[in-house]
């Protein structure tokens, strides 16, 4: 039975408190516990980055496991193997002696094996009269058995992280392709807009992708890349809507004149049903709404708007639009200015614009005039929220890094 007594290494090798703790843990292996040695080895290979060991060290561990006669590591059997360095070197594909010793030390430090040295440091087994091993000195594989579940969990986490990284990388590749082709199409077909500046933003984003990116690097860039894609699509939709509106200019002029008779006491934007009902009464056209940016991105760029949501948080677009009405009043934006923004940009995008203004309230002297200016530019197809949101997101991320 594996008792797991604490032992110290032979010669000048030191022992650490972590190694002593590991030896004590192996002494607590439950009776009868067993684990497939190759399954545990595969888990250790999968979790090698977490364990901090190299591939060559795993090759040495593989060689050590071949000296254990059974496929299952069992608590009720001796878990000590005692090959010589020459034998280990052969099974580890001819690894040099100094390299072998270095990787054995790495396996000990990682808590995957333990040294059980004899009085003179030699590795051997002492057998009884029947030929059964009575005592063995060499390397104990007990830590692998004791940590079998831990290694399996670590391997699952690494696999899940790798999958998440792969999915994120694929999503970035697709988004990057979309943006590149949308910009090219807009330039080639002469779509109105400052496409050179947008292309500069795109090239800046792609230039920030590291040669060996982490999941955090990719997530930060894909958020901005997705926002840029939404920005481009919004611009193209604005232009399309403007062209559709221009083809009915005479009819629109009459509708606008009819709309001027509406009461100036309308304080807040109407709901979609109310707008539809009013339009049917006055023949006032409503342009096709522009798609809004993802709510999660908006809240990352404009976290201050959360304080004005129902219950002090914004969890949906309805919450954001309710918060924008409160902020509109707080910033001194007139109901007519906000109503005009809703009609031109759509209620969701108007709410986003108000959230952006709130985020930069300390730098904006007249919030109402600023919103009217944005609305006028949006009406002419010269404004989209994308650059503003991207700038705010970068500013917030920079502030977070400084605070950290």
From TrEMBL:
Residues 294-395 form the Plasmid replication protein C C-terminal domain. Residues 13-186 form the Plasmid replication protein C N-terminal domain. Residues 241-289 are annotated as: Disordered. It comes from the Bacteria. InterPro entries: RepABC_RepC, RepC_C, RepC_N. Residues 244-286 have a biased composition (Polar residues). This is Replication initiation protein RepC. It comes from Sinorhizobium glycinis.
């Amino acid at each position: 039975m594996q008792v797991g007594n604490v032992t110290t290494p032979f010669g000048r090798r030191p022992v650490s408190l972590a190694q002593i703790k590991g030896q004590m843990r192996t002494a607590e292996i439950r009776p009868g516990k067993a684990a497939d040695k190759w399954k545990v080895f595969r888990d250790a290979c999968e979790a090698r980055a977490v364990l901090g060991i190299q591939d060559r060290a795993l090759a040495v561990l593989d060689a050590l496991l071949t000296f254990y006669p059974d496929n299952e590591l069992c608590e009720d059997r001796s878990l000590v193997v005692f090959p010589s360095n020459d034998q280990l070197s052969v099974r580890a594909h001819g690894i040099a002696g100094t390299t072998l010793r270095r990787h054995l030390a790495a396996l000990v430090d990682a808590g995957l094996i333990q040294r059980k040295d004899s009085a003179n440091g030699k590795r051997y087994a002492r057998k009884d009269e029947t030929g059964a091993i009575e005592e063995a000195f060499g390397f104990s594989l007990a830590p692998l058995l004791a940590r079998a579940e831990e290694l399996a969990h670590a391997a699952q986490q690494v696999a899940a992280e790798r999958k998440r990284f792969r999915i994120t990388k694929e999503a970035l590749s697709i988004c990057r392709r979309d943006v590149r082709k949308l910009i090219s199409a807009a330039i080639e077909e002469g779509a109105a807009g400052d496409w050179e500046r947008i292309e500069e933003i795109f090239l800046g984003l792609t230039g920030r992708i590291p040669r060996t990116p982490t999941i955090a690097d990719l997530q930060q860039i894909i958020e901005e890349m997705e926002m840029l894609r939404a920005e481009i699509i919004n611009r193209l939709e604005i232009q399309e809507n403007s062209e559709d509106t221009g083809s009915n200019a005479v009819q629109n002029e009459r509708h606008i004149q009819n709309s001027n008779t509406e009461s100036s006491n309308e304080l807040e934007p109407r709901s979609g049903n109310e707008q539809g009902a009013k339009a049917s009464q006055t023949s006032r056209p409503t342009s096709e709404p522009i798609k809004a940016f993802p709510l999660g991105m908006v809240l990352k760029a404009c976290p201050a708007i959360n304080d004005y949501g129902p219950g002090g948080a914004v969890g949906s677009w309805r919450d954001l639009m309710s918060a924008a009405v409160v902020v509109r009043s707080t910033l001194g934006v007139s109901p007519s200015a906000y109503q005009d923004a809703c009609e031109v940009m759509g209620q969701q995008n108007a709410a986003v614009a108000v959230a952006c203004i709130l985020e930069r309230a300390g730098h904006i002297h007249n919030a109402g005039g600023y919103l009217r200016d944005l609305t006028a530019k949006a009406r002419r197809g010269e404004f989209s929220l994308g650059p503003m949101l991207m700038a705010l997101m970068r500013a917030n991320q920079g502030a977070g890094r400084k605070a950290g």
